[in-house]
């Protein structure tokens, strides 16, 4: 009897024999994954790729003869494949993490310098989830990143609307994303003008990575982007990124919004969880909110987005064609949570049109 799923084949590239063996054991333990082959450097990996093509590549960064980021860039330019980076060089404050994502990696897993084998076993679920999600990704050729042009607010909203949005401080946008979301968020936040409503973001990302991710986005965007701290005010022209390892909720004191950053159990296998954010927004902001669910595997955010829509919020889902993994948006569609589904490039304008339409309705009322 044939299994109800196709087993995904994995190529492991790491110069450590211990890591190769341990990762092989962890990946092979999942019924939907198998290790096709291993290689101890990019040259061996390239030779193997000439003979057969895996569904996913798990790649170290620091290796002999060629580093993993260089190999990743060459691979994504010539023959795009889903890649998960597993390395000691992607820790807090490291540019390697963002360099890997910008080069086309689907996900990044940090391994420590010591007790590597123990760490990998303890993180087996995280590793299996990352590899399986990557197997469903549809990578595209990655070109060198150009210096982003600054958007004029006039190009997105007419001048009369800008003034109204600056005065409307009770609007809020909540965005949730997972696999493929780091680059998707960059595209969305870069397109937001300084007069945009406040934005709250949950991106599934390990602890210690979000601060550097927020700093990088802040360099690229017109709006201010920062990792959220407990008690932060929610302000127009600013995006707050939920810290890795903690949930972020919207709270309200009178007419003013703040965020609460707190510990708590995993929700839908994640902390931070998109559902936790969306549900708090549905209760605190109701019809004054716009919810956006983007690329990612699983169903985190689907129920929370439905609660937002039920409370009168406007809701957007990223379409399948522009999603790296069409999992979370698809689940939200199934739950009836998505009001409109658009491509990644259309999300910024859709957000601003919805905010503007909502503001116009309130003014007429």
Q: Could you give the order of the helices and strands?
A: EHEHEHEHEHHHEHEHEEEEHEHEHEH
Distance between the termini: 63 Å
Overall number of domains? 2
The strand count comes to: 14
Helix content: 25-40%
Low-confidence stretches: 145-169
Structural class: alpha/beta
- Indicate the mean pLDDT: 84
Instruction: Give the overall shape.
Output: elongated
Q: Architecture of the largest domain, according to CATH? A: 3-Layer(aba) Sandwich
Strand arrangement across the biggest beta sheet: 8-9-7-6-12-13-14
The CATH class assignment of the largest domain is Alpha Beta
Which sheet architecture does the biggest sheet show? 7 strands, parallel
Oligomer: single chain
What is the CATH T-level topology of the largest domain? Answer: Rossmann fold
Residues in β-strands, percent: 15-25%
Spatial extent as radius of gyration: 21 Å
Question: Can you put this structure into words, describing what you see?
Answer:
This protein is an alpha/beta fold and 365 residues long. It folds into 2 domains: 128 residues, Response regulator (Rossmann fold); 212 residues, Methylesterase CheB, C-terminal domain (Rossmann fold), CATH 3.40.50.180. The protein contains 13 helices and 14 strands. It has a 7-stranded parallel β-sheet, with helices on both faces. Strand 13, helix 12 and strand 14 form a beta-alpha-beta unit. Helix 1 packs parallel to helix 5, helix 3 runs parallel beside helix 4 and helix 10 runs parallel beside helix 11. The longest helix is centred in the C-terminal third of the chain and has 18 residues. The radius of gyration is 21 Å and the shape is elongated. It starts with 7 loop residues before the first strand and ends with a helix. About 7% of the residues have low confidence. Keywords: Chemotaxis, Cytoplasm, Hydrolase, Phosphoprotein. It is found in: Cytoplasm. InterPro entries: CheB-like (IPR008248), CheB_C (IPR035909), CheY-like_superfamily (IPR011006), Sig_transdc_resp-reg_Me-estase (IPR000673), Sig_transdc_resp-reg_receiver (IPR001789). This is Protein-glutamate methylesterase/protein-glutamine glutaminase. Belongs to the CheB family.
